[in-house]
Design brief:
Blueprint lengths: L1 H7 L31 E5 L4 H9 L4 E6 L3 H10 L5 E2 L2 H8 L5 E4 L6 H10 L3 E5 L6 H14 L3 E4 L6 H11 L6 E7 L24 H5 L37 H10 L1 H6 L7 E10 L9 E8 L8 E7 L21 E3 L3 H4 L7 H4 L7 H7 L5 E3 L5 E6 L3 E4 L7 E3 L20 H9 L9 H17 L8 E2 L4 E2 L3 H4 L18
Parallel strand pairs: 1-2, 1-4, 2-3, 4-5, 5-6, 7-10
Antiparallel strand pairs: 7-13, 8-9, 9-10, 11-12, 13-14, 14-15, 16-17
């Protein structure tokens, strides 16, 4: 501790919050539950990612109500929980089932996250909201304020924030292992769905299984289309839905909204990015632009001011990647981000590993690509992952992590052979959904509660706005204003279709 405190001085004073990763009002006023008591969960969005979140909660808690605008998309979940009443309109579900609900999972398209979560919190329901939390900065601030006002537990669905490697990354940097960090590079292979489309197909009839008006929700009305398809494309969508909405300005936040909350989680935690002033945000490269969709690929630069003993730094985000970026300073032959895995015919070597040799995936031990050649047994297969991950460049070394902060390691990887991780400073998570459930029952706030998640997504969402405008954007967080581009400034707050009331908090 003395060495770490010497290196970063007062920064470590706030590294371990007294109540986990954020502060929240006492939850006992909402009806404290013993850890042995079950919560009653409802879900807004019961297919796709919602189904996964419901499965994560259901082994220990009750599923008491389900909502989805698409009967076909949610059919399997409805079947798995036959006793839970089903709805298409979440407002009707909350009005009718409120007395029987403790917590709600919100896993709709991004444009409906904010309003759905606000309706839940107004009724004193704990909320688990899928990343990227919301589409706009204003909504992020509204949800943060509402969680504090109503004293509810909250969690954004960015599982990487619960990962052991994310915490190891922060602790290694705070321990001074790579010195002062001046650059971070983070990248993703997303979008996997079509982006850069320039024409909207002709109108088609809405299937009887879908309530298109409720799907649009707060967004302006527009004709429904399936692009002439009778079966979904290889990305699982017809045109807007059920998955490709991520690429549309009005519904999603592109690749940043899909993966940055995971991949940039470790940089955000380790380098206190949410606490820094953003000097500027600029999209420095984009390919395949569209009037209504995000580009096919892009590079965005975030410029952050110094914070405490940490110097100013730049964060580069790359999406649409076919391979990991070539980063100046990274030694040749070193694998960055998600590393390759070794699949062998020997179960002893694969035991306990996710797609590779057990010792390869163990914390503090990894191999360079060249080393695999000496490890490979007859019939062994070296599997290369899709390009996702991050690299931290310090004045004394380099560190890299995977998509969710896993396999955190120094580079050259040879340094990890006899390396011992720093003593833990941060609270360890029992798992992302379990973390949320614990908070709902009166435990410490979840690791990505809205006090943590809202400031994180605020700076990230500035990158989403930068994708739609040329030049560097300058931002005043105190006034929540982009000061040098009036048109970009309008995108900080969403517009709402008549009939959809967000119930915004004042101030």
């Amino acid at each position: 501790m003395k060495r770490r405190h010497f290196f970063y001085g007062s920064l470590l004073a706030g590294a371990v919050p007294a109540a986990g990763f954020g502060s929240a009002a006492s939850l006992k006023s909402l009806g404290y539950k013993s850890p042995n008591e079950k919560l009653n969960f409802a879900a807004i969005g019961s297919g796709g990612q919602g189904a996964s979140n419901i499965r994560a909660a259901s082994p220990t808690e009750n599923i008491v109500a389900l909502c989805d605008v698409d009967d076909r998309r949610a059919a399997e979940t409805f079947k798995n929980f036959p006793k839970a009443p089903t709805y298409r309109d979440f407002r009707k579900m909350l009005d009718k089932e409120a007395a029987n609900i403790d917590a709600v999972i919100v896993a709709t398209p991004d444009h409906m996250h904010g309003m759905a979560a606000m309706w839940c919190m107004e009724r004193n329901k704990h909320v688990y909201v899928q990343k990227p939390l919301v589409r706009t900065v204003w909504e992020a601030r509204q949800l943060r304020a509402a969680a504090a006002k109503y004293g509810v537990a909250s969690q954004m669905g960015n599982q990487g924030y619960s990962n052991e490697g994310t915490r190891q990354c922060a602790e290694m940097i705070w321990n001074g292992e790579i010195g002062s960090v001046t650059q971070v590079h983070a990248w993703s292979d997303r979008p996997l769905w079509p982006q850069g489309i320039t024409e909207i197909p002709k109108e088609e009839p809405v299937p009887s299984t879908l309530d298109w008006d409720l799907w649009l929700g707060v967004a302006e009305k527009r004709p429904f289309t399936m692009a002439g398809r009778t079966e979904p494309d290889r990305w699982g969508s017809y045109f807007y839905q059920p998955f490709a909405w991520r690429g549309f300005y009005d519904f999603g936040a592109g690749a940043l909204g899909d993966m940055a909350c995971h991949i940039l989680g470790a940089p955000n935690m380790a380098l206190h990015l949410s606490k820094r002033k953003i000097v500027g945000v600029e999209c420095v490269k984009k390919e395949g632009v569209s009037p209504f969709q995000f580009p096919k690929a892009s590079v965005i630069r975030f410029d952050f001011a110094a914070y405490g003993d940490m110097p100013a730094l730049q964060v580069f985000w790359y999406d649409g990647m076919k391979e990991s970026p070539k980063i100046a300073g990274v030694p040749a032959g070193e694998w960055v981000g998600d590393p390759p895995s070794l699949r062998t015919a020997d179960p002893r070597r694969d035991a306990g590993a996710r797609g590779g040799a057990a010792d390869f995936r163990s914390p503090g031990r990894t191999f360079s690509t060249a080393e695999f050649e000496t490890l490979k047994a007859p019939g062994a297969e070296l599997r290369f992952p899709t390009p996702n991950g991050s690299v931290f460049l310090g004045d004394k070394g380099i560190l890299t992590t995977g998509t969710y902060g896993e396999v955190t390691r120094l580079l050259p990887v040879e340094k990890m052979k006899d390396y011992t991780m720093p003593a833990p400073l941060l609270t360890r998570s029992p798992g992302h959904m379990r973390d949320f459930i614990r908070a709902c029952k009166g435990g410490e706030p979840a690791c990505s509660n809205f006090e943590v998640a809202s400031p994180f997504v605020e700076w990230m969402l500035l990158g989403v706005i930068a994708l739609r405008h040329e030049g560097k954007l300058e931002y005043d967080p105190e006034k929540m204003r982009i000061t040098n581009n009036a048109e970009a400034n309008k995108l900080l707050k969403p517009t709402f279709r008549k009939g959809w009331d967000f119930h915004a908090l004042k101030g």
